[in-house]
Design brief:
InterPro entries: Cullin, Cullin-like_AB, Cullin_CS, Cullin_homology, Cullin_homology_sf, Cullin_N, Cullin_neddylation_domain, Cullin_repeat-like_dom_sf. The chain is built from 32 helices and 13 strands. It is mainly α. The chain has five domains: 263 residues, Cullin Repeats (5 helical Cullin repeat like, Up-down Bundle); 95 residues, Cullin Repeats (5 helical Cullin repeat like), CATH 1.20.1310; 75 residues, Ring Box Chain A, domain 5 (Irregular); 89 residues, Ribosomal Protein S5, domain 2; 83 residues, Arc Repressor Mutant, subunit A (Orthogonal Bundle).
């Protein structure tokens, strides 16, 4: 294949035929080790060839027949012998003047040493050989198209690059010395032998088969077949792609081949340049991908449900990512995935966002829409609306026609069911995405505070406090430790969304006080656990009164024990006539007011009352005791019925019933009023309840003790709360809340102004609203009124000439 001269030297012939034998034998499928082992024992080199350095490149006196026989012998020799011939040729110092001085991007031979001229001559002949060989390969590819072209291209690529790699090894000395010297001197278009072979492949074969995009179109058609479900030879695509942009073997570095290919940077052959790959394959491939999936997606979504389309899109995206791993260059991943996301997801995002069905669909939708910029924003908004709508519907179902009398347990469970279902959805379908967590929180805050049960914003915290009260009472059937802790955790989940936490605080404090003084708490541990949770959520100040209430109850145990011990030392215990316990409650901590009516204690209670009062005042002379008769609880045993019963009564009921011990079995209303000392508004409800319970009968305006009273229960609770009293109590709590809020707003404004000294009106409004958000959601008008009140109280003043600027007055 070498260009023949009129006179040939044995050395030239050896190298010519050595290169040609490597390229042609490998083209016939023979591996390099097989080629090197054709002859088991290499013969001794002719004496003339052993002294190659003394021979001219072209000797006019050499015999053609002799050189041919020598070359036939040498082509079967080992790599070492061929390398030796190449080395001797490059280091020859003489060159026959009849040689041809051609240039292929290097300077002329003038002024150079003989060794340099020999290297230049060898390099030029190698270049001509590669060009000549590739023209034959290219001619055979002329009639081929599509898959046959790819088969031919990949086969020739494998053979050519393998042969070029072996040839490169033979000319190691040329690469290390002559090529390096030329490059160091700034010569252009001079490469190592392997790179030279690739450059010629690119320019004389690849450029031919890629004319009119014939090669890249063949690759695209094969990929389209695979997309259509047909089985293809993926290695054909991979080898073509590799030839354009992936590195191929060039020697061995630390046991691993270096890589080089058509996409090389000719200025720095160790640097990859993907221009060939991108121009010839990637851009046309992405354009074809766009067309293919645009057509397929529009047809599929028009003929199938959105759910089925999302499954299809998810499958296609996975296929394309896998395609990169199988046979595309890694740099294509970003562009290919982005193109598929645009065509398969972004172009159909609107239709997908309209669907909001099963968890699996939402997970698939999330994964698809998360691929495109801002693709999840509409989904988050729809999710928020979905949760809000579900919450309102759930509450409406529980409330029914009227919001009055809604059961706290059912109400809270309705809120929890919506939250827990959607919180689980966020974790499973949306992978805990913080954007969806925020959407869930906003939706829950909305339907928890503004729903059909909430005639006003205070209703939801009141119902939640009542639900917590039910959980913490002894009557709670699910009072096992694990179940109770779980229920308290769920209660705090809803508490997080309550805007008016001060309302919850008031009702919870009121109900806790009732549980403590009536001894109806399920356990002290459960009560402490709930207080700890509230403190963690809202801070120490929020629960300070609750903590002091518990401390008071602990002190009361010691106080009662000391009192009984004192009485046992100074009096006969039987003289008291009753089993007596008292609770001393701090006025500033307990939400309990004085009784609305006075009462005359019966003789049975007066004695123990006097003794305890005397005992306590002797220990705390500076204190004042105010007896809260409305919160006292008693137990009475019947002596007038055949079956003995125990009545659980309030103090007012006790005083009324004990009248029948001293004044007969039949008493008028006036007799009872005079005997008990009670006001009408307190006495009438008590008598009505006793009549309703059939403990007392009303006959001709006379109240008679029902001597035939019967009940299925031995212990009868007559101390049931009266609905009218409960309603009044709720109204009183709300009035106290309004009063507290006014003071809290004023205190917040003073605290802000004290630290800032001067503030503009809007800044003061904003800062006050921000600081109060954790307790309740104040109205703008209430803050403005509080500012005016503080100006009147001379805490603030308006700055002269600047009506919107306030100044703090120390």
């Amino acid at each position: 294949m070498w260009r023949r001269l009129q006179v040939r030297s044995p050395t030239r012939v050896v190298l010519e035929k050595g290169v040609d034998q490597i390229m042609t034998r490998l083209s016939e499928g023979m591996s390099y080790p097989q080629y090197m082992n054709v002859s088991p024992t290499p013969p001794t080199l002719p004496g003339a060839l052993a002294r190659v350095p003394s021979l001219p490149l072209i000797s006019s006196g050499a015999s053609n027949s002799g050189s041919d026989r020598a070359s036939e012998s040498l082509i079967r020799h080992s790599k070492t012998q061929l390398y030796t011939v190449s080395y001797n040729y490059c280091t020859s110092s003489r060159m026959n003047s009849g040689g041809v001085n051609e240039t292929i991007g290097i300077g002329t031979a003038g002024g150079r040493s003989g060794a340099n001229l020999m290297g230049s001559d060898l390099y030029k002949h190698l270049n001509r050989y590669f060009v000549s060989h590739l023209k034959q390969v290219s001619a055979a590819a002329e009639p081929l198209t599509d898959e046959p072209l790819l088969v031919y291209y990949t086969r020739e690529w494998d053979r050519y690059t393998t042969g070029a790699s072996y040839v490169n090894r033979l000319f190691t000395y040329l690469n290390r010395h002559w090529v390096k010297r030329e490059k160091d001197e700034g010569r252009k278009n001079v490469y190592q032998v392997y790179i030279l072979a690739l450059v010629q492949w690119r320019d004389h074969f690849y450029a031919h088969v890629q004319d009119n995009h014939k090669l890249s179109n063949a690759v695209s058609k094969l990929i389209e077949k695979q997309r259509n479900g047909e089985t293809i030879q993926t290695d054909l695509v991979k080898k073509v792609v590799d030839s354009l942009g992936t590195w191929f073997a060039l020697g061995v570095v630390k046991g691993r081949p270096r890589r080089l290919a058509l996409g090389m940077d000719e200025g720095d052959t160790n640097k990859q340049n993907l221009e060939v790959y991108q121009d010839a394959f990637e851009r046309p491939f992405l354009a074809a991908t766009d067309l293919y999936y645009t057509s397929e997606s529009e047809q599929y979504i028009g003929a199938n449900s959105v759910t089925e389309y999302m499954k299809k899109a998810e499958m296609r995206l996975a296929e394309e990512e896998n395609r990169v791993d199988l046979y595309l260059h890694a740099s294509t991943r970003k562009g290919l995935v982005s193109k598929c996301e645009e065509v398969l997801v972004k172009n159909h995002a609107g239709k997908m966002q309209e669907e909001f069905q099963r968890e699996g669909d939402l997970k698939r939708m999330y994964l698809l829409l998360s691929r495109i910029p801002n693709g999840l924003d509409p989904l988050r908004e729809r999710f928020e609306q979905h949760v809000k709508k579900a919450g309102l519907a759930s509450v409406e179902k529980v409330v029914g026609e009227s919001a009055e009398g809604v059961e706290p347990k059912a109400y809270v469970e309705a809120l929890l069911s919506v939250h827990s279902n959607n919180a689980e959805l966020v974790q499973k379908a949306f992978k805990g995405d913080q954007g969806f967590v925020g959407s869930l929180d906003r939706a829950c805050r909305e339907f928890v505070n503004r729903n059909k049960a909430c005639s006003n914003a205070n209703k939801s915290p009141e119902l939640l406090a009542k639900h917590a009260d039910g959980l913490l009472k002894k009557s709670n059937k699910a009072s096992e430790d694990d179940d109770l802790e779980k229920s308290l955790t769920e209660t705090m989940t809803i508490f997080k969304y309550i805007e008016d936490k001060d309302v919850f605080q008031k009702f919870y404090t009121k109900m806790l006080s009732n549980r403590l003084i009536r001894a109806t708490s399920a356990s002290d541990d459960a009560e402490s656990s709930m207080i700890t949770r509230l403190k963690d959520a809202c801070g120490f100040e929020y629960t300070s009164k609750l903590t002091r209430m518990f401390q008071d109850m602990a002190l009361n145990k010691d106080l009662n024990a000391q009192f009984k011990d004192k009485m046992s030392q100074t009096h006969d215990a039987s003289e008291l006539g009753v089993d007596f316990e008292v609770s001393i409650l701090g006025t500033s901590s307990w939400p309990l007011g004085a009784a609305s009516t006075g009462v005359k204690l019966p003789t049975e209670l007066q004695q123990v009352y006097d003794r305890f009062t005397g005992y306590y005042m002797s220990k705390h002379s500076g204190r004042k005791l105010t007896w809260l008769w409305q919160h006292c609880r008693n137990e009475l045993r019947t002596l007038y019925t055949g079956q003995k019963y125990f009545f659980v009564t309030s103090m007012f009921q006790t005083v009324v019933l004990l009248q029948f011990n001293t004044s007969g079995d039949s008493l008028s209303y006036e007799d009872l009023k005079l005997g008990t000392g009670m006001e009408d508004e307190a006495l009438k409800p008590v008598l009505q309840l006793l009549v309703k319970q059939r403990v007392v009968d009303l006959k001709d305006d006379m109240y008679e003790l029902n001597l035939g009273f019967k009940s299925k229960k031995i212990r009868v609770n007559l101390n049931a709360p009266i609905k009218a009293e409960q309603k009044t109590e709720s109204a009183d709590v709300m009035k106290h809340i309004d009063d507290d809020r006014k003071m809290l707003i004023q205190a917040t404004i003073v605290r802000v102004m004290k630290s800032r000294k001067e503030m503009k009106h809007q800044q003061l409004i904003n800062e006050t609203l921000a600081q109060l958000q954790t307790r309740f959601k104040p109205k703008l008008g209430d803050v403005k009124k509080a500012i005016d009140v503080l100006i009147d109280k001379e805490y603030l003043e308006r700055v002269d000439g600047q009506r919107d600027l306030y100044k703090y007055l120390a």
